[in-house]
């Protein structure tokens, strides 16, 4: 298997709005990103993914784009972004942008023209349908809840289509002219010097053109759009063309947000000639809930065994197709991993945060760190729905009430799963606004943050932050880099049920990872695992007998000969 230039990257995701405010408006900005480049570099990071900073009315916090080729003034200017690019480059850090091409904002010029004049060419950039009876064209439910069809004002019986919020009209990928405009835009950013893209919601590009209703799968009489508008036959044509017309020409790195790709299609996505350099492994992202779109339906009773199986299964399948996975514990759409994967509040300690980091850092593929994960940030509990900003949280809350759930239980679900858990301002120090801003931030600060901030953790040798730095060093350590990058993946079976263990193997070198994801002591035998490279919590290894305290982890390295 050939090694691609991006295979030993470590990626850091910035959610700009919540990273660092420098002009006293309570909103993070590009200058704030520039100011912390040294901090990011010290984590061993070689690439940054920037969540959307394009011009946007911010209904979905920038994932509703009004101008693909301009920066929203809330964040700064294109010139400032260029400075960010060159400052990152000085530190050998590449930058990838977020590419949102399934939909735009309803404030995008194309959509405005499409509404203003049904005869304009822009009408066919989007998906409009007219019905005879004034009913919506079908019973599909959007990802954020409610019909995928929004009535067009002043045009009776006419609707436009949206997979996400009504303010995010889907682009019509069936239209070649639209596709060409998108490719030009992408190439413009690549010319500007971005290394590539994280590609948003990409499996939604193709919809079933029969637009047929299906039997309802919810009490609202609707059916999830996923069944008719995700990974549908024919998507290959769009994804191949997209790659050829843009990414291939620049040797760009692309990371697909590709929910729902069936195993049999994985090769097409990330095989040697796949549409993308890699896709996120989301196999266990929603392990904590019964239903991915309707979180209010409650929590799942997942076990460490489920987690292990999901993890290993995706790695094995990716290995079979010689594909690379982007490994993630967190992102801006998910609650904090410490709160998600460590069920008991008392166990949500820095040690547990480090154990989780160890679990995913040495899997085949590229580790992604979401801002704040590296200091062990946690969820916090909000007391009222008014404290939330996220459109999907608020919609889920309302769907729950409609479905007969009590306010308390609806709120509890939203607190557990809300995307706003990850979107609170970054904690730089222990002051009122955590050094994020000197004024009230756009979204309330977390209220469970004692000891969890950059300044405090820099001063503590044993902090989560310093542990992430060590992981970064080990990942790039030339003595181990080949095995970390290209070593075969070998799950270790026959371990206690709450222990996740795996090996990476290459030319006689073996890297072994054990993680105890419970608060109970775990004991087992392990042979030929070599010397300890890194450890978290209390662990003894005596004559091949391993004893691991609750929430502990160890990385061992063996050199043959
Ligand atoms: C992706 C983004 C999410 C956004 C959605 C619609 O899932 O990660 O934040 O709401 O796409 O663009
Ligand atoms: Ca600002």
Radius of gyration: 23 Å
| Amino- and carboxy-terminal Cα gap | 25 Å
Sheet with most strands: strand arrangement? 1-2-5-10-12-13-14-15
Helix count, per DSSP?
Answer: 17
Give the overall silhouette.
globular
Low-confidence stretches: none
- Residue-averaged pLDDT: 97
Work out the number of β strands.
Answer: 23
Largest sheet: 8 strands, parallel, barrel
Percentage of β-strand residues? 15-25%
Helix content: 25-40%
The helix/strand class is alpha/beta
> Which hetero compounds are present in the coordinates?
alpha-D-glucopyranose, calcium ion
Describe the structure.
The protein has 561 residues and is α/β, with parallel strands linked by helices. The protein has 17 helices and 23 strands. It has helices at residues 30-35, 37-42, 78-90, 109-116, 176-192, 226-229, 235-250, 266-270, 304-320, 337-341, 350-361, 391-402, 407-417, 420-423, 454-458, 464-476, 481-486; strands at 11-14, 47-50, 54-55, 67-71, 94-99, 128-130, 140-141, 149-151, 158-161, 196-199, 223-224, 253-256, 278-280, 324-328, 366-370, 488-491, 499-506, 509-516, 522-525, 531-536, 539-542, 545-548, 552-559. The structure holds alpha-D-glucopyranose and calcium ion (CA). The site of calcium ion (CA) has 6 residues, from loops.
Which terms would index this structure?
18% strand; alpha/beta; 8-stranded parallel barrel; 5-stranded antiparallel β-sheet; 23 strands; binds alpha-D-glucopyranose; 561 residues; single chain
């Amino acid at each position: 298997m050939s090694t691609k230039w991006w295979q030993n990257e470590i990626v850091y995701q910035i959610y700009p709005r919540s990273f660092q405010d420098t002009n006293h408006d309570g909103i993070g900005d590009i200058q704030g990103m520039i100011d912390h480049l040294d901090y990011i570099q010290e984590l061993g990071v070689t690439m940054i993914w920037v969540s959307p900073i394009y011009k946007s009315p911010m209904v979905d916090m920038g994932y509703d784009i009004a101008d693909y080729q301009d920066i929203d003034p809330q964040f700064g200017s294109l010139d400032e972004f260029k400075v960010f690019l060159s400052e990152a480059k000085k530190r050998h850090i590449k930058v990838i942008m977020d590419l949102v091409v399934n939909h735009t904002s309803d404030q995008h010029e194309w959509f405005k023209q499409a509404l203003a004049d049904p005869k304009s060419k822009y009408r066919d950039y989007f998906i409009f349908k007219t019905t005879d009876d004034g009913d919506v064209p079908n019973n599909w439910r959007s990802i954020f809840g409610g019909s995928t069809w929004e009535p067009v004002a002043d045009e009776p019986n006419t609707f436009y289509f949206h997979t996400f919020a009504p303010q995010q009209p889907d682009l019509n990928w069936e239209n070649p002219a639209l596709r060409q405009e998108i490719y030009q835009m992408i190439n413009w950013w690549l010319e500007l010097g971005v290394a590539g893209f994280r590609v948003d919601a990409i499996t939604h590009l193709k919809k079933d053109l029969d637009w047929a209703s299906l039997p309802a799968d919810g009490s609202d009489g609707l059916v999830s759009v996923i069944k008719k508008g995700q990974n549908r036959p024919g998507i290959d044509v769009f994804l191949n063309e997209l790659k050829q017309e843009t990414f291939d020409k620049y040797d760009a790195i692309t990371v697909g947000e590709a929910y729902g790709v069936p195993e049999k299609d994985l090769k097409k996505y990330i095989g040697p000639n796949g549409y993308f350099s890699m896709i996120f492994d989301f196999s266990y992202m929603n392990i904590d809930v019964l239903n991915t779109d309707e979180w209010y339906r409650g929590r799942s009773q997942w076990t460490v065994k489920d987690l292990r199986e999901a993890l290993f299964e995706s790695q094995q399948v990716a290995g079979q197709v010689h594909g690379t996975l982007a490994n993630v514990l967190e992102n801006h759409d998910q609650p904090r991993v410490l709160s998600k994967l460590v069920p008991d509040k008392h166990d949500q300690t820095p040690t547990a945060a480090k154990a989780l980091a160890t679990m995913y850092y040495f899997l085949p593929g590229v580790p992604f760190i979401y801002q704040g994960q590296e200091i062990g940030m946690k969820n916090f509990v909000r007391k009222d729905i008014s404290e939330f900003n996220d459109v999907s949280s608020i919609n889920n809350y309302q769907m729950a009430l409609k479905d007969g759930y009590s306010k308390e239980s609806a709120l509890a679900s939203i607190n557990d799963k809300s995307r706003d858990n990850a979107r609170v301002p970054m904690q730089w120090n222990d002051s009122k606004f955590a050094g994020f801003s000197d004024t009230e931030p756009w979204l309330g600060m977390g209220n469970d943050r004692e000891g969890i901030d950059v300044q405090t953790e820099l001063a503590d040798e044993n902090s989560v932050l310093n542990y992430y730095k060590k992981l970064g060093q080990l990942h790039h350590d030339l003595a181990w880099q080949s095995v970390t990058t290209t070593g075969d993946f070998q799950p270790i079976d026959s371990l206690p049920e709450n222990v996740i263990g795996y090996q990476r193997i290459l030319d006689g070198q073996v890297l072994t990872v054990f993680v105890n994801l419970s608060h109970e002591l775990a004991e087992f035998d392990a042979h030929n695992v070599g010397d300890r490279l890194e450890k978290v919590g209390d662990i003894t290894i005596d004559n091949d007998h391993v004893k691991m305290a609750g929430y502990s982890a160890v990385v061992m390295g063996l050199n043959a000969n």
